[in-house]
Write a structure and sequence with these properties.
It is a single chain. The chain is mainly alpha-helical. The protein contains 22 helices and two strands. It starts with a helix and ends in a 27-residue tail after the last helix.
């Protein structure tokens, strides 16, 4: 028996040494854990076979992935997009960037999916020591690539074993605190709120803080929602060809589905005993936040069935809270000819009908308040884009004029230049929308262009306070949703895997 254990230990040492020798010039970019790989059944032959991929082998010889950005000068109308401040940017190694970029260029490459899973596993919760938010991030990313490899047809035993072990680690964190909590206001929440509304330069500090908070408070709905939101924000506003956008949407997708599960459980408890339990105040907006991540991934993967399922799921959430989901569903549908009319109809209904009621009855969608400082301006300017594409020049001009008449228009630092671009170039923008050539359609106000996957909505133009000053008393005055938008009731079924696959 002792000889057996000694043999296993020796195999682990030889595996690690042989693996490091095989790796050669990439050793600085790749964390090796021979004992972990041995435990999962990932043999040296598997590693060497994956590293023979042209992208990986080529990088070891000094190769890289060139950016295929067009050399054509930008068209001032067709190529204009709302400038969004982004003071900080995550940094990954050149090797990781090259491999991740190659995967995004071809997300059906099963060898790259398996390699990237192996790349993240040693940094995951399988790494010895206490749990941390950073380990959680790598665990979720590793799970995505493991699932992706399996969906692409790989039946390697180590993939199932790694999914089982990482799943148990995540489940152990979730089970470490019983019940469901809807408490808000702990230290990490405040870091997130401050970054999201006042100091965008701290967005990645907030992202790390929210992951750490999940380890401490895994049963907290707001923590799960904030992990969802911060990743949707960072992914939506990432640089055009930043490959870490995939990490944002993967981690956000995981927490979006988990947040809905927690909130659903809390609402069920409230329905059984309303005197003892409360509903999560943002419960009816969770669907749109969940679908945005999964739909981006489904589009990236070319999973048309998943996209159709998600659109139906989104429509169900729109019926529950149209005032919020007009934003999420409306921006997804703007650039899709088959869905454009539906998006326009939804936006028209909210702007012209649902927001045209006494102020005291209005939802925050129709108001400018702390955490939604310039909502009205954004809604009106986006509606003007819809109207120009619909062929209604005069109506669009009226919407822009109305936006500029709002009392804090001059404090709208991020959105005002984009509004001015539209106002000064309205005939040309209108002409591009109406010329029958979708290739030169201007980018709508709320979208940011992406190299991979669909263009995504941004957050800063409405959420950041910019030059608007709010008193501390105003900041603490949170407007609760109207009763008709406070309960989900009949919860729409989650239609795909958490990472957007239709299987």
């Amino acid at each position: 028996m002792k000889f057996k254990y000694l043999l296993f230990a020796l195999m682990g040492v030889l595996f690690t040494a042989g693996y490091a020798q095989a790796k050669g010039s990439l050793s600085e970019d790749f964390t090796y854990d021979g004992s972990l790989y041995n435990e999962l059944g990932i043999n040296l032959g598997t590693i060497i076979a994956l590293e023979s991929h042209p992208v990986i082998a080529g990088f070891g010889l000094g190769g890289s992935i060139p950016d295929s950005a067009s050399a054509m000068p930008p068209d001032p109308i067709a190529d204009y997009e709302t400038p969004i401040p982004h003071a900080t940017q995550p940094v990954i190694s050149p090797f990781e960037k090259a491999v991740l970029t190659a995967y995004l260029n071809n997300p059906s490459d099963v060898r790259l999916a398996k390699f990237l899973a192996i790349y993240h596993l040693p940094q995951s919760l399988l790494k010895p020591g206490p749990a941390s938010g950073e380990k959680v991030k790598h665990t979720i990313i590793a799970q995505y690539f493991l699932n992706r490899a399996r969906d692409l047809g790989s039946n390697d035993k180590w993939i199932g074993k790694a999914l089982e072990k990482t799943g148990k680690k995540l489940d152990a964190i979730k089970a470490s605190v019983p019940g469901v909590s809807i408490e808000e206001g702990n230290a990490a929440h405040q870091v997130f709120i401050d970054a999201f509304n006042y100091h965008e330069e701290n967005r990645y500090i907030a992202q790390a803080a929210m992951l750490d908070d999940f380890v401490k408070h895994p049963n907290n709905v707001y923590t799960a929602v904030a992990n969802n939101a911060i990743n949707l924000w960072n992914g939506g506003e990432a640089d055009y060809a930043d490959p870490t956008v995939l990490y944002n949407f993967v981690v956000g997708a995981y927490f979006s589905v988990y947040a809905m599960d927690l909130a659903h459980r809390e609402e069920q408890l409230w329905q059984q005993n309303p005197s003892q339990y409360s509903r999560f105040r943002l419960v009816t907006i969770l669907g749109g936040f969940s679908i945005s991540h999964r739909r981006w991934l489904a589009k990236l993967h070319g999973d048309d069935r998943a996209v159709a399922l998600l659109d139906d799921e989104h429509r169900a959430w729109y019926k529950i809270n149209p005032l919020f989901h007009v934003f999420t569903i409306g921006m997804e549908f703007f650039q899709e000819p088959e869905n454009w009319q539906e998006g326009f109809n939804n936006w028209f209904d909210v702007i012209i009908v649902k927001c045209n009621i006494p102020v005291e009855q209005q939802s925050v969608t129709c108001l400018n308040r702390p955490r939604f400082t310039f909502n009205t301006y954004v809604m009106l300017t986006t509606f003007a884009d819809y109207l120009m594409k619909a062929g209604n020049f005069g109506f669009a001009q009226g919407m822009l004029a109305f936006a500029s008449s709002q009392p804090d228009f001059n404090a709208w630092d991020i959105g005002k230049p984009a509004w001015e671009h539209r106002w000064n170039n309205l005939p040309d923008i209108y002409a591009n929308y109406q010329n029958g050539d979708p290739s030169d359609d201007p980018l709508p106000f709320l979208l940011k262009s992406r190299k991979w996957g669909p263009d995504m909505a941004t957050c800063q133009t409405c959420h950041q306070a910019q030059s608007k000053y709010w008193t501390e008393e105003e900041k603490k005055d949170i407007k609760l949703p109207n009763e008709e938008y406070a309960t989900v009731g009949n919860w729409p079924a989650v239609s795909t895997t958490w990472y957007g696959a239709s299987r």
